[in-house]
Amino acid sequence: MVVGALAQSDAEDLELMWRIRAFEEKASELFARGKISGLLHLAIGQEATAVGVCGALKPADTVFSGHRPHAHAIAKGAEIGRLFAELAGRSTGYCGGKGGSMHLAVPEVGFVTATGVVGGNLPLALGAALSSSSRGKQEVSVAFFGDGAVQTGLFHECLNLASLWKLPVVLICENNGFAEFSPLSAHTVVRRLADHADTYGIPSETIDGNDLALVRAAAVAAVDRARGGGGPSFLECLTHRFRGHYEGDPTLKRGSNPRDEKMDPIGRFVRSLEGRVGSVEPEKIEARIRVEVDMAADEALDAPWPDRESLVSNVVASW
Amino acid sequence: MLYAEAVVEALRRSIEDDERVHLMGQYFLGLTPHRTMVGDLYKQYPDRVYFPPIAELGYVGAGIGAAIAGLRPIVDCATASFTFQAFAQILNEAANIHYMSGGQTSVPMVIHYNHGVRGGGAAQHSHSPQAMMWNTPGLEIVTPSHPADLIGLVQTAVASDNPTIWVDHVRLFDTEGEVPDDIEPIPFGRASIRREGSDLTVFASSWMVCRSLEAAELLAAEGISVEVVDPRTLVPLDEEAILQSVAKTGHLLVVDECHRRCGVGSEIAAIVAEHAHGDLRAPIRRLATLDVPVPFSAPMEEFVEPTVDKIIEAARSVVENR
Amino acid sequence: MVTETVRYIDAISSVLRHELDRDDDVLILGEDVSYGGPFGATAGLSESFGPRRVIDTPISEGAVMGLAVGAALSGCRPVVEIMFADFVTLAMDQLVNHAAKFRYMTDGKLSVPMTIRVQGGVGGGYGAHHSQSLESWFLHVPGLKVVAPSSVADAGGLLTAAIRDDDPVIYLEHRGLYWTKGSFVPGGSPTRIGEAAVVRPGSDVTVVTVSRMVKTAITASEKLAAEGIDIELVDLRSVAPIDWDTIEDSVRRTRRLVVVHEAVTTGGLGAEIVAGLSTRAFEVLASPAVRVGAPSAPVPASPFLEQFYAPSVEDVVEAVLMTLDDREERPAHAS
Amino acid sequence: MLPDLGVEGLMTLLERMLVARRFEEQLIDLAQERDIGHFHVYVGQETTGIPALALLEDGDLSFTNHRNHGHLIARGAEPGPMYAEILGRATGYCRGKGGTLHLASAEHGFPTTSSATGGCIPPAVGAALGFQRLGSDRVSVCLMGDGALEEGAWHESANIAAMEQLPVVFLCENNSLEALGQRAGEYPSSTMAASDLTELASVFGIESVAIDGLDTRCVYQTMAKAVQRGRSGEGPTFIEARTVRWPGNRPIWPELATGKTDLSMAWDDSVIPQEHIKWHQEQDGVLEYVRQLLGNGQISKESVLDLDKQSSERVREGLIFALDSPYPSPEEALEHVFTPHQG
Fold first, then answer.
1. B77 belongs to a structural domain
2. pTM of the model
3. Does C334 lie at the interface with D, CB-CB under 8 angstroms?
4. Can you tell me the distance from the alpha carbon of D216 to that of D1, in angstroms, rounded to the nearest whole number?
5. C61 in active site
6. CATH of span A10-244+269-300
7. Are residues B91 and B226 in the same domain?
8. Would the CB atoms of D203 and A151 count as touching at under 8 Å?
């Protein structure tokens, strides 16, 4: 069993990875059918980092994600039905249809918010960590970002700040080798992104992000360090994105059959369980989750559009 | 020619006509299917293209330095919202350098972005920041709405020694227009009367010109004769053309995709209120994007932006007591 | 409560101290704030409240703004100091794309109770990177509230209101006002955001203005009073939201409007007000509204050029006279 | 140590150091008499900027910051138009539109000066990009303080410079040893977590080195190598020159804390007062440079004093020129927003 703060069972971990995978595949299908509009960025192939890291967190710990946020929200405990509804712009969505895919917010489960701006969530996670430490709380915050964010100025400013103030924050870089459309080598000469963290004296690790057990272990160590007052950590998870930058990307389609890929984190996790006592039944889990996802999607699409009056609500608390 | 093709054509001509022109960035045609055309252009001129990392502050600023050093960079910020990342360089550096140096140094660069409501872009991918840029002296702003104008305006922008903001809109990409072979550079500050009319002046720029023209066509059927004034450049602005049109029609509707408060429409309305108060036979109306962040959900999105229906309705209300 | 006569900057210091004391969630963030900042607004706060609540930051405006947003999302009430308004450009993304939008994008699930103290304005030969007035940018962004006090009392009242507000509030300080004096009640009540003040009632022309230009307009109205012209002077105090009712009420009585501000005229606050009034009170305006603002040029450094940049008393007087030029005429469209 | 420049070259450096020093001293005096606004002085960093920039040639560009006076003098700018600019006169290099914060002289290779911290970095990298794309062998020099490294603009620009192997030299003058922001003795400053500033550049594979900014020879040689690397297409270099912060650099308002520079302190310890003894004996680069020149034996005290007198005179005349110069006409405030279109 992969140990975490919430002590998930292997079955639960596998279920969660499947829920994410099936959710995103369904979202892809709905997008192709025109049921979802806007920009849809999928993280199919990167499930192990979301599940590995979020499994190391307590419910009150906070997560801030970027433009590829579904996996993180689901791993932190968001309901897929309301996520589908948000993607489809329905009133029952988590943000009443005002946020959409890139701006999901489920603060009740600690998934505070996502942002559509590359690197934009980093200072937000730092701020939550500052809030926690300055008020003597024990909560840890996590920022998930891609390798593209590492080249932003905000990244540099945030690593400096996190280190200076020993903030209880864990920075998770999901390095899928692609920043938006182009390979990382077109964006930086830095080979190991975690080297940046070393410069500011932030403990770092570069790991195989498709190995759930490895991710969980590294995340537990980083979260423990943050909670114990040891300051920030930087985790570079090498992952593999099976889809293009976004759905409909005309210039890049990678991996037509992701489950065959050697890197597929789900396949790897299942293989790692083989032969173990009391092992789970992967096929049954997958089948059950797919039914669950289909139902959730249908229900979301049946939900009403938001009221027009809601258009001008919640711009500010009050004037 | 498709507008998207005109974008590529304008870039191609710029590259071919002036060896100092280099392109920085790759999302001139946004994330639309058209963007492969930009890719093809890049393959043709690999030495004239620079693919920056996701670092708008850094690479837009690098464009400024390159312009000072002798290039004529055309820098693409992709979605207008991302210009906020580079505001410090665009508004604090590029716009000020010529002035602060007392005229010693020029920044001949073009900064391109795609603005506005594009469909599902939500709050962080749907901005129209040109009103904010307009409030900052030192930037020229071009807002083409027609393929031929686009090519002519970009030629002038590239030849200009000033930093020029090239405002595009992804919804323009699929529009079509006639493009003669021998397009001359279009001087800045000359509006185009895209449709003549006698009852109402509609001022609109960029994508809103297309919607206004469509509305004007439908209004004509009701006997309302609409004149559509497309400024083509916001800075410099052809105030005379607007005032002349208002003198003729006595009615003004400003259609603007910026937010209403302190939008382009505010300035146009203020100019007319100050200088043509006596010509006005009814209050000016401003139709702009409502003052809320752009929502994601499709019906709400349509509700906040100026649509053809809303233009028609607003036009009727302005001229009702004609 | 005792009314004291203090400087504008002292009122700011006093409110910061009072709010830190009153609410443990209030934090101060900024460059060199523990040293008082460049003008001493935060002097002594670090000693009283410690470095965990009065926090010196690196010169990283983008990260600091975002960090404050994150802290605000998590229950704090940060007060961020941006040393010069011009440097908000470095934090525009966090301000416009994050702080201003989280409430809306999440349909009210999140709120961002933060105050952004910004210092700026023309004066002292600081040049184009340290003198801008950028309120029209902020006014253009839904989700931001913007206040710009001109008096010592409002400096205190509006800062109190800003810190206690549940939304991001930009608090614009004009450095030319820092050393002006006025009455102030320490620990006094907040001034309502969105309410203008009629600082001088009058009947001939409405002059709407804000921040330091209120002082200029007061002098101008005194001059004009000597010529028998009675100005009604409206101090907006809040730039977002604009108190339309007060302006409209005044213009309906005077039928003439001048808007004065220090920011660039083109695309400025004046454009919004003139545009708004020309719709709201079109039929009553007896003459065209006039805007008085800075020219479309960056702020020059030369103290000599600088004095011609911001509107002067004479500029305001001239604008008022322009609106009265045709005092006897009735506009063609008046019914 | 002295660079291998021959007597003439060494004296040219001395002359510029003295002009720079006397320029600032006179400016501080002037600020006592009249309100000239907010300004920053270069006192204490002369041995860095002056030899470093002496190497540049026509067409090379330098992008400096708020602490720019010494940099301009290093490349031959004249005290007169500099003072005139600081005083907002029509004869200033920027005709009164830039002031001290944006002092720039295109003819001396300073196209624009940003006073936003880190604001100069992206344009400096961009100029290098321009040179590279134009096939020119010119280099761009980014003159920055250590505080600029806290800005995101640094990180984005360094990455771009490294990726494209651009001909740019980042000369970072770290004067934070005794700076305002320093707390608890953390070097280099309390607001930067990196314990070694050069690592912020070397992480990108940029050639990086930290040097003693008081060592004129080292500055000169390091810069020569960096410029050569740039000219020959070998890419960017980052130099951290560690200087001290002059005791007179009070936050915001400089004052002559150590008095007017008395060159005789270079050869006569008895004239050095107890107060600021460390400054006069070890930290004042100009005095140190004079000691080395005299130690070299080729240059006499008299010629040093002579040069100082000439430099002081040049600076004095410069100020008179500036004070006698007219202000620009008010309407000029509206000029130079745009360049007129051709044709």
1. yes
2. 0.83
3. no
4. 6
5. yes
6. 3.40.50.970
7. no
8. no
